[in-house]
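Data availability excerpt. The first of two example chains:
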Amino acid sequence: MLILGIDPGSRVTGYGVVDVSAAQPCYVASGCIRTSGDDLAQRLAQIYAGISEVVARYAPGEFAIEQVFMSKNADSALKLGQARGCAIVCAANHGLLVNEYGPRQIKQAVTGTGAAEKAQVQHMVTAILALSSTPQADAADALAIALTHAYSRTGLVPRKGYGRQAKRSSSWREYRPD
């Protein structure tokens, strides 16, 4: 089974796909969805389209995303929240269950400490997945989110989800949960 991890951002959204079919999670793909332009609505549309492409290409069975954290800059936090919401809607529209993890929880799961630096997360993701090179920071964070979800499936990390998997319909009026 494939897990898609998303590190949301209004300018750069990282994604990471890991395969958890074997005993050890295996790297499948990672990258960044880079948005352009100053219009936030258009950037959100680009994020949605990018995540839709990743879902169509890899057909993940599960979806994980980082929870919103508080920032000193309220405007940045609001934009991050909108990018995150866009990713969640995309996942739900593709029938994926949304699982969310806090930044400290992700760092704890991947590095062993909730106070790890970004470089430590990148290093551990590279080591855990036996990558030949270090992924870009946003992609590494997305892979860390996917790994955290993989570990939560085995009971090693507490899990928070939005509920059951949604059934996609052709109209919002026909939407009904499982």
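And the second chain:
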Amino acid sequence: MLLFGDMLVFTVLFVVYLHARGPERDLFASSQDHLNRSFGAINTLILLTSSIIVVFATRALKDPRWQHLASRLTIAGVLVGTCFVVVKLVEYTQKVHAGITPTTNHFYMYYFVLKGSHLVHVLIGLTVLTVLSRFARKPAPAVR
């Protein structure tokens, strides 16, 4: 249900964005030209790397030979994921110093709302992973 809810919220946000973009295509296109595409590429790689590390942590939990690595892998996923937050803060700082804020135009309003929503989701995920890393340190209960 949580995943479905997230998908629904982001679907609605993107539909609203696309609807708003329709009558202002030139404004949206020219505003997009001011984005640093490197930040997007770097953050994509960061999130993919963090995700694969968490997948390895999950697999380690299932195999008694590797369970001792699960907590470390989870923390590694958190540390890599934290790089996303740092890059996003640098990106936002550059925008604000250039005088670009959510009030600049409709494109940037949607840009900051969508990117901010994603940032909040990443922060929640990092918090959950940090808590789960504590559980991963505990030995698995004996099965009788």
